[in-house]
Amino acid sequence: MRSYPLTAGRLLGTFEPAAADDEVRAPMFGQRLGAVAARVRQWEFWPPWLFYLPLVPWIVWLAFRHRGLTTITAANPGIPHGGFVGESKYDIVQRLPPQWVVSSARLPAGGVDERMRLLSAAMERGGWGYPIVLKPDAGERGAGVRLIGGPVDAREYLIRNRYSVLAQAYHPGPFEAGILYCRMPGGERGRIFSLTEKHFPSIVGDGRSTIRALILRHRRYRMQAGVFLARLRERAAEVPPRGRPVCLAVAGNHCQGTMFRDGAHLITPALEARVDEIARSFDGFFFGRFDVRYGDAEALRAGRGFAIVELNGATSESTNIYDPDWPLSRAYRVLGAQWAILFQIGDANRRRGCPVTPLPGLVRAVRDYYRGRMVDSLSD
Question: Which residue in 94, 99, 240, 293 is a FRET match for 215, CA 20 to 30 A apart?
């Protein structure tokens, strides 16, 4: 991982390494300043601590009403700490019906040669070919997700990332969605709280401009230029031919550059019934977000033709709140309702005898998770 000087632009996520080509620096500096100003106006790009600040009093009230801040750790008794921190993605997907999950394997921490052997065995066993996806078995916000094109890339990734890694067959999609599900304990059926469509960023070459210049000129992408340019590195100086698209990200995460749109039009009784069926097969799961890949919107609406990439627990967000067309007030209403449901589920499970992680135990879990971890904050 490279280190960069800490500047106002870096804090707002628009910092980029110095230009390596012959483009005029002054206009580019002006473009970067414009990107910083745009991020301030566009609330979806605010840092999480700032965005969540107005929600703190509501969460404190919910904690008081439901007898403790860590009540939410009882929301999913089948996941350690309810899925608050450090849960294994592999262990979770193994609890779901295999016909609905992208084929996966875990590569435990250890020597690179042994892990490459395990990866080869998993690929042969599952009938995978390259490309594949490698990512931390316990990770957040898309950090460290990589699309791996061959064994050389896989070895390089495993050398850099010595912790437990999740390997998955690459699902071609090309579409991805986040489906937030909830069910009250003892309830007859669960429901889809929200569905988010994920739009992956790409630019189109004009035959004259570098990728860096195209990003900095783009009305939206300039606001996450730091993410894209740090990921592209030397490729940012390339000049793509006219008409050639350049994909800027493959991880379906907002902070990695993917645009989120509210996908309520995709929610149907058939899809809701299918997701409820899958969720109920996981004993001890009541609240979380399924990240799924699919190839056809109508098939998804019919409750078929999708594959689960991962399932997140208590810290899942209703990611449709980041739809750029939504006003901030609507985002806070949805997020407030989501947190209220999460506390209600945790409280109901606690009343049924499910354990709640004490606050000191949760603090230790967070500390143990982050101790010594050097996870690249970027994805592909």
Answer: 293
Cis omega before residue 131 (within 30°)? yes
Joined tokens for residue 175? 């579409």
Question: 20 CB contacts (<8 Å, ≥6 apart)?
Answer: 234, 236, 237
**Spatial separation of the C-alpha atoms in residues 183 and 205, rounded to whole Å:** 47
Rounded distance, CA 205 to CA 264, Å?
Answer: 33
Cα–Cα distance for residue pair 87/365, rounded to 1 Å: 10
Long-range contacts from 5-9, C-beta under 8 angstroms, 24+ separation: 8/36, 9/35, 9/36, 9/226
Contacts of 138 (CB under 8 A, 6+ apart): 86, 87, 88, 89, 163, 164, 369
Residue 152 φ/ψ, nearest 5 degrees: -65, -45
CB neighbour class for 66 (10 Å; exposed up to 12, middle 13-18, buried from 19)? buried
What are the pLDDT digits (tens) for 69-126? 999 999 999 999 999 988 999 999 999 999 999 999 999 999 999 999 999 999 999 9
**CB–CB of 23/213 below 8 Å?**
yes
HSE-up (13 A, CA, CB side) for residue 67: 11
Structure tokens belonging to residue 158: 């495993």
The span from the CA of 258 to the CA of 287, in Å, is 24
Top pLDDT among 38 and 53 is at 53
Contact (Cβ atoms closer than 8 angstroms) between residue 209 and residue 236 = no
180 touches 276 (CB < 8 A): no
Q: What's the pLDDT at 371?
A: 75
Residue 316 in contact with residue 335, Cβ under 8 Å? Answer: no
Q: Yes or no: say if 130 and 150 are a contact pair by the CB < 8 Å rule.
A: yes
Q: Model-level pTM?
A: 0.85
The tokens for 345 are 């589920």
| Distance set, CA 142 to CA 103, 186, 253, 309 (Å) | 19, 33, 6, 12
Round to whole Å and give the CA distance between 143 and 323.
21
